[in-house]
Design goal:
This protein is an alpha/beta fold. It has a single domain, classed as NAD(P)-binding Rossmann-like Domain (Rossmann fold, 3-Layer(aba) Sandwich). It is about 45% helix and about 15% strand. A seven-stranded parallel sheet has the order 3-2-1-4-5-6-7, sandwiched between helices. It binds nicotinamide-adenine-dinucleotide (NAD).
């Protein structure tokens, strides 16, 4: 994989979780990194962690769902580093509520951050990239865009919208040399998914559905994001890269125990025993 030496990357939601791991990976690959998060303390922590490396880093606190804050953040990146080559539109929030209980404010906030925030960041950064000959945008969507989980209507709808937006943005921005792609992680060990990954009962239950038998680490997603932003992905645009350990492939091995599959398994075992 190529390095990002001399490139400038803006990563939203990089105060913790997937965004932070991604900012760290870009810094390791020599990029100048703009850390944007609405939580000022987390921005500071990420900047400190990155500052020990070689690349330059700029921390900005701001809310991606507000046009003026996104514009100001993009202007600060450009003022400091002279341009923008990569946007990782990653910041997002979740919410678990049965459909009949969702109130207008919770619905709107999730849509504002996950969908409108992705639009605002993409548009503000793409305007800069269009003037400078192109760039790469990677959005953190989710398997929830197509493999929905109950009681998460707003989140699922926001991520479905994000994927449709990514495909459209790829069409609209191709003529400016801007590629737009998305990653679709399954369950990743971050504070956002801790209610699953850190609850022994929920985690054990969920893991039964994941063929690779473990949750993703933030670094697993960061690597996929770096690939989509890299020159190795130069002919890829408008695509989604699923990284879910096999979660959404279908019913996992073992689901049909008790039917013909059991007989088949014992037949295979017998054949092996006879051969040895
Ligand atoms: N963790 C998972 O299992 C998982 C799975 C699929 C997709 N995702 C997506 O990955 C992205 C990152 O999630 P994570 O798991 O790292 O979450 P996280 O909660 O650990 O981190 C998200 C970061 O984004 C910041 N943020 C939230 N709203 C913001 C806003 N309006 N403006 C600026 N910053 C804001 C938070 O302060 C936080 O630091 C999200 O879009 C999420 O939907 C996560």
């Amino acid at each position: 994989m190529s390095t990002f030496s001399g490139k400038v990357a803006l990563v939203t939601g990089s105060g913790q979780g997937i965004g932070r791991a991604t900012a760290e990976r870009f810094a390791t690959e020599g990029a100048k990194v703009c850390v944007l998060d609405r939580d000022a303390d987390r921005v500071e922590e990420t900047v400190k962690a990155l500052a020990s490396g070689e690349g330059a880093v700029l921390g900005i606190s701001g809310d991606i769902s507000r046009r003026q804050e996104v514009r100001r953040a993009v202007e600060r990146c450009v003022d400091r580093f002279g341009g923008l080559d990569v946007l990782v539109a990653n910041a997002g929030i979740s919410g678990v509520q049965p459909l009949l209980d969702i109130d207008d404010a919770s619905w709107q906030r999730i849509l504002d951050v996950n969908l409108t925030g992705t639009f605002l960041c993409t548009q503000e950064v793409a305007r800069v990239m269009a003037r400078s000959g192109g760039g790469a945008i990677v959005v953190t969507a989710s398997t929830n865009a197509f493999w929905v989980e109950a009681n998460m209507a707003a989140y699922n709808a926001s991520k479905g919208g994000v994927v449709a937006f990514v495909r459209t943005a790829a069409l609209d921005l191709a003529r400016f040399g801007i590629r737009v792609n998305a990653v679709e992680p399954g369950v990743v060990r971050t504070p956002l998914a801790a209610f699953v990954t850190e609850d022994p009962v929920a985690a054990a239950d969920y893991l039964k559905r994941i063929p690779l038998d473990h949750f993703a680490d933030p670094a697993d997603v960061a690597d996929a994001i770096l690939f989509l932003a890299s020159k190795e992905a130069r002919y890829i645009t408008g695509q989604t890269l699923i990284l879910d350990g096999g979660l959404t492939l279908g019913l996992p091995e073992g689901w049909n125990r008790g039917s013909g599959a059991r007989d088949q398994d014992s037949e295979i075992r017998n054949q092996k025993a006879n051969r040895s």
